[in-house]
Amino acid sequence: MIRSLLYVAVVLLLGAAPASAQLRVFGPGGPAPAMRDAADRFEQQSGTKVEIVSGPTPQWIDRARREADLIYSGSDTMMTEFVRALPDLLHQSDGRLSRCPGG
User: Fewest Cβ atoms closer than 10 Å to its Cβ: which of 34, 45, 58, 67?
Assistant: First the structure.
């Protein structure tokens, strides 16, 4: 499951970042080491800097509301909670998540 989430995150990053840009990625601490590894590989291939902000949700959620380019989770249930907590940033339709228009 974590490997699948990482793959999705990397694919999204590859499609979302212009060269020399910076991406801000937020999520829980558990998958953070794997996300950092994926971010390092992405940076090497693309030249785009990736900042991983991780830990307990209350420590990063306010900053994510202002700055997040990507949010990852440790489980489907956790992502559902993120959708509820970040309605201006994320929305869910047809079982897929995407960034809200204008966000």
Answer: 58
By the 10 Å C-beta count (0-12 exposed, 13-18 middle, 19+ buried), 57 is classed as: middle
Residues 6+ apart with CB under 8 A from 17: 23, 46, 48, 69
Q: Greatest CA separation found in the chain?
A: 34
Summarised one tens digit per residue, pLDDT across range 7-59 is 445 545 555 555 458 999 999 999 999 999 999 999 999 999 999 999 999 99
Residues 6+ apart with CB under 8 A from 84: none
CA 40 to CA 48: how far, in whole Å?
10
Domains in the chain, number: 1
Distance between CA atoms of residues 85 and 79, nearest Å: 10
Give me the domain span that covers residue 67. Answer: 2-10+23-90
